[in-house]
Design brief:
globular; 2% strand; mainly alpha; 70% helix; 12 helices; Rhopdopsin 7-helix transmembrane proteins; 2 strands
């Protein structure tokens, strides 16, 4: 009888542990991640092939674009492992080393993708709004070594994921043991939100200034302005779809966890994990940014991977940028000669 009372008084484990709160939800998410892995691997391999063997990124000032591809491969490498855990009913790996490495890789991917996308947007902003002035972004773009520096600067922001043991790599709001532990958890969450919120504010600022510049410019060539608008809007689209929903869901999860609302936490965990899986689609959307950012890459990719009946239509389309034109000339022999635009550097 006493043993029965002791068992009954044992508190139930918190819902935010390594087990999935809903088997069906996480099976669906695992299937989505498998699809993301297959498409992401094929797409990014094709992009990498173009950058190295066809476009030669080091000669065309596309170092930052190439680094985004590298960051996407970090994400793609994590997807089958995470899908495997979801299929086995685990939100994260029960192995501490694997769990920390996975979160480290995902933090590094998110930070690198955001960092290089923001740098591209700032480059467009300075080239349009502050045309003719020397700016640090243009200097950085012409210095390949700066990419290494950016990667090294990202490492300190990912170190908190490796500092201490915590349940299922996700303890904030659960661990109330020591002040140092809570400080580490809090710092990790601050890094998560800062790397999304501050870059989004910068993006909105750049977009508004570039659009205003486009509206005020009534004479001269507006091609560069339209291209700049398309670049920053494409980056804003990637942010709005991939990163912002995940950040909002993370904030909601932390709120219900700190308030000890176990029933709501089960729902919040599933919503957060679902939106986190949605954020992984950035490895599929980044090539859209490449095409808007660099018409030379777009032309090289279309020429190598698109079927012949689509090439002419895609090459002649400017996607609202006014960056490409096609001139078709018929010679006396009846042969059609297509004049392609000069690749943008």
């Amino acid at each position: 009888m006493l043993q029965h009372v002791q068992l009954a008084s044992t508190p139930s484990p918190p819902p935010d542990n390594c087990t999935t709160p809903s088997e069906l939800t996480y099976q669906i998410l695992s299937c989505v991640m498998i699809g993301q892995f297959i498409l992401g691997l094929l797409l990014n391999l094709s992009v990498l092939y173009i950058f190295i063997f066809r476009y030669k990124f080091w000669k065309n000032k596309s170092i930052f674009l190439f680094n985004i591809v590298v960051a996407d491969f970090l994400l793609v490498a994590c997807l089958p492992i995470k899908a495997h855990h979801y299929l086995n009913g685990e939100r994260h790996s029960p192995n501490e080393v694997v769990c920390k490495i996975m979160i480290f890789m995902l933090f590094l991917n998110r930070g690198a993708s955001i960092g290089f996308l923001i740098t591209l947007s700032l480059d467009r902003y300075f080239n349009v709004v502050h045309l003719g002035r020397k700016n640090f972004v243009k200097v950085l773009k012409n210095t390949p070594q700066i990419s290494v520096v950016i990667w090294l600067l990202l490492l300190p922001l990912t170190i908190p994921t490796m500092l201490r043991t915590f349940e299922c790599c996700n303890s904030h709001g659960r661990n109330k043991e020591t002040t140092s532990s809570n400080m580490i958890d809090t710092f990790r969450e601050i890094v998560f939100f800062i790397q999304i919120i501050i870059p989004f504010i910068i993006l909105v600022f750049c977009t508004v200034r570039i659009v205003n510049r486009l509206r005020k410019k009534t004479v001269g060539d507006q091609t560069k302005l339209r291209r700049a608008v398309c670049v920053v809007l494409s980056v804003v689209f990637v942010f709005s779809l991939c990163f912002l929903p995940c950040a909002l869901a993370r904030a909601a999860l932390l709120f219900v966890r700190i308030k000890d609302k176990d029933g709501a936490e089960n729902v919040a965990v599933q919503v957060y994990d679902s939106l986190e899986v949605l954020s992984y689609i950035n490895c599929l959307l980044d090539p859209l940014v490449y095409c808007f950012c660099n018409s030379g890459f777009k032309n090289a990719y279309i020429n190598n991977f698109c079927p012949p009946f689509l090439k002419e239509k895609l090459l002649s389309a400017d996607f609202g940028m006014g960056t490409t034109t096609m001139t078709t000339t018929t010679t006396s022999g009846g042969r059609i000669v297509v004049m392609k635009p000069v690749n943008e550097k």
